[in-house]
Amino acid sequence: MAVTLTDNALAVLRARYLVREGGVVVETAEQLFRRVAQHVSAAEARLGYSADEIAEASASFERMMAALEFIPNSPTLMNAGRPLGQLAACFVVPVDDSTSGVFEAVRWAAEIQKTGGGTGFSFSRLRPAGDLVASTGGTASGPVSLMQVFDVATEAIKQGGTRRGANMGMLRVDHPDILEFIALKLDPARMRNFNLSVAVTDAFMAAVRDGTTYDLVNPRTGVATGQLDARRVLDAIANAAWAIGDPGMVFIDRINDHQPTPQLGSIEATNPCVTGDTRVWVEDVGLVAIQDLVGQTPKIATLDGERVVFRQATQVIRTGMRSIFRLSTVEGLELRLTGDHRVSTARGDVAAKELVTGDRVPIFLATPSDVATASIAAFQGDLVRWATVRSLSLEGEAEVFDLTEPTTSHFFANGLLVHNCGEQPLLPFESCTLGSIDVGKLVDDRDFDWARLRTIIHDSVRFLDDVIEANRYPLPEIERSTKATRKIGLGIMGWADALAAIGIAYDSEEALALADRMATFLEDESLAASSALAERRGAFPAWAGSRWEDAGHRPLRNATTTTIAPTGTISIIAGCASGIEPLYALAYRRNVLDGAELVEINPAFRRVAADRGFGSPALFEAIAEHGGVRGRDEVPADVQRSFPTAHEIDVATHVRMQAAFQRHVHAAVSKTINLAKTATPADVKGAYQLAYELGCKGITVYRDTSREGQVLVTGARAVVASSAACCPECSSVLIVQSGCRLCRHCGWSVCG
Question: Could you confirm whether 273 is annotated as catalytic?
Answer without folding.
Answer: yes
